[in-house]
Design brief:
69 residues; elongated; 67% helix
Length: 69
């Protein structure tokens, strides 16, 4: 199982930004830029849903609070 490395605020921000990009893609952008915006939005939303960001993992970043046992 992949360990989550995104906190709640980070995940909410990613969903909000992803949704905003989808709306911009539908109503503002066209052609190639629209595709790029949809791909970025999809990545943001997918990482928010899973709670795991590969780039964070590579850079050693985590916004997930430490859980005490």
């Amino acid at each position: 199982m992949i360990q989550k490395n995104e906190g709640k605020q980070d995940r909410v921000l990613r969903v909000v930004l992803g949704t905003a990009l989808i709306l911009l893609g539908v109503f503002v952008f066209t052609h190639t830029l629209q595709i790029v915006v949809f791909v970025v939005a999809g990545i943001l939303i997918a990482t928010a849903l899973t709670g795991y960001c590969g780039l964070y993992s590579v850079l050693g970043i985590t916004t997930c609070p430490v859980k005490k046992k």
